[in-house]
């Protein structure tokens, strides 16, 4: 944050709000800070967020969803649209708290021919029609690719994107000319081992997140007979 931002009372408010939201995410165990973490890429960082843990506390996520809903309350909304399990949980909370009482729909993510793709199930297609007002919700935004695909999907169906809201945004890039409302706007710098200031200070390297990917497997069970 620049000196100019710090003098601006509205900017200060944002800073305080962001700190509160960071604390909430920290309480879910999703956000790690003041550490020296090895990333799967081999780079090092001092902060890390475990996306799957972000939506595990219903009362926290309901509260955060209500903040996003309040921000967009002035814009009538017919549908809240998201994709991915975490974003869907958040979008339910946003829709529940939005005065327009919008319905909730979701797309599915996949990769086709090496390209990322978002698909709207046929059952939902009649819900987004020409003129439908759609609020897009994401949990974590990194490159913005998923959001750009969702915007294209809505516009392809003739709908109108009234806004984009998310919990955490790592980039400040605008989505197709739309500003993104995020509870936390924060990118974590990553360093190559050679240029890492934490290595230079001699802080021990936390390899837990990489190591457990290699040694742990997701828990799974299967039925004894092949499915029909
Ligand atoms: Zn380092």
Task: Kindly describe this structure.
It is a single chain. The protein has helices spanning 3-7, 9-27, 58-71, 85-97, 122-125, 145-156, 197-201, 208-215, and strands spanning 31-32, 37-38, 44-45, 48-49, 79-83, 103-112, 115-119, 133-141, 160-169, 180-185, 190-191. The protein has 228 residues and is of the alpha/beta class. The chain has a domain at 58-187: 3-Layer(aba) Sandwich (Rossmann fold). α3 (58-71) packs across α4 (85-97). The radius of gyration is 20 Å and the shape is globular. Zinc ion is lined by residues 36, 44, 193, 196, 198-199, 205. Zinc ion (ZN) binds at residues 36, 44, 193, 196, 198-199, 205.
CATH-derived topology of the domain at 58-187: Rossmann fold
| Ligands (ions, cofactors included) | zinc ion
Q: How many DSSP-defined strands?
A: 11
Radius of gyration computed on alpha carbons:
20 Å
Shape: globular
Helix and strand composition category: alpha/beta
N- to C-terminal distance: 58 Å
Quick recap:
The protein is built from 8 helices and 11 strands. It has 228 residues and is of the alpha/beta class. It has a domain of 130 residues: Rossmann fold (3-Layer(aba) Sandwich), CATH 3.40.50.2020.
């Amino acid at each position: 944050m620049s000196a100019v931002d710090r003098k601006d009372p509205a900017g200060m408010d944002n800073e305080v709000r962001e700190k509160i939201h960071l604390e909430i995410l920290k309480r879910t165990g999703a956000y790690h800070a003041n550490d020296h973490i090895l990333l799967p890429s081999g780079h090092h960082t001092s902060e890390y967020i475990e996306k799957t843990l972000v939506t595990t506390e219903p009362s926290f996520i309901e509260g955060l969803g209500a903040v996003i809903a309040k921000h967009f309350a002035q814009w009538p909304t017919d549908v809240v649209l998201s994709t991915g399990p975490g974003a869907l949980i958040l979008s339910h909370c946003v829709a529940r708290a939005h005065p327009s009482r919008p319905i909730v729909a979701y797309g599915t993510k996949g990769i086709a021919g090496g390209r990322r793709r978002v698909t709207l199930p046929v059952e939902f297609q009649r819900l987004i029609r020409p003129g439908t007002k759609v609020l897009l919700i994401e949990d974590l935004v990194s490159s913005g690719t998923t959001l750009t695909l969702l915007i294209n999907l809505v516009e392809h169906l003739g709908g109108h994107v009234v806004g984009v809201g998310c919990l955490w945004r790592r980039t400040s890039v605008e989505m197709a000319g739309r500003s993104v409302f995020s509870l936390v706007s924060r990118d974590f710098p990553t360093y190559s081992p050679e240029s890492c200031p934490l290595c230079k200070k001699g802080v021990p390297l936390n390899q837990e997140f990489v190591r457990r990917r290699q040694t742990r497997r997701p828990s799974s069970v299967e039925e004894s007979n092949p499915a029909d």
